Amino acid sequence: xxxxxxxxxxxxxxxxxxxxxxxxxxxxxxxxxxxxxxxxxxxxxxxxxxxxxxxxxxxxxxxxxxxxxxxxxxxxxxxxxxxxxxxxxxxxxxxxxxxxxxxxxxxxxxxxxxxxxxxxxxxxxxxxxxxxxxxxxxxxxxxxxxxxxxxxxxxxxxxxxxxxxxxxxxxxxxxxxxxxxxxxxxxxxxxxxxxxxxxxxxxxxxxxxxxxxxxxxxxxxxxxxxxxxxxxxxxxxxxxxxxxxxxxxxxxxxxxxxxxxxxxxxxxxxxxxxxxxxxxx
Length: 281
Description:
single chain; alpha/beta; Rossmann fold; N-(1-d-carboxylethyl)-l-norvaline Dehydrogenase, domain 2; eight-stranded mixed beta sheet; globular
């Protein structure tokens, strides 16, 4: 008999993960209480069953998948643990290995089992997205089995908690961190009056790719800020300075005003937001 999987937060990524599990004949449930209309729409699209309350989700789930913004990871785990959840809990958020191990202790204290996860790639609606869920921990194989044959490729990399989180952090340190760096470079060049000359030096192809990359990521900047701070903590815990990614977090925070924007803003508007975060210009 298929297990019941409880999904915490059917956001842009979480909904696709829930759909991937539902597509392998698992019952996937979520709790709509207090959630937005947008969350309901995503859950419907993913084919998730609404159990209304978090308490019902906890009571009915054999496995819980936590996929939420980094800042909420411990609060979610604490609530699950306080309810006495004794199933398998996937911590699938973009957080540091140290924080992951801290959350592990919360889940173990309630009698549950714990798996560390790191998602790399975009929403996993189609196989062609090449989205991967890296897993580590003694029960990682149990989570991987939930996605066998689905659009989401689940890969067990270690039996050590923290390994999957470390992979996620180091991968995003470059992919998202370099986007923040390019954003800052363009802003400084703009303020200095040399952006046209810089882009000429870069060449048309790279300059256009950079402008498009910076502008296209503004809608997700509000999520990236917290992730940058988790990466900073990961670096610091490893004995490497984390200052760069603290700066990257501030860059993305300045772009958080584009969260609900429809369409991609012009690069000039993006640079204005970076150079005048108060919006006073």
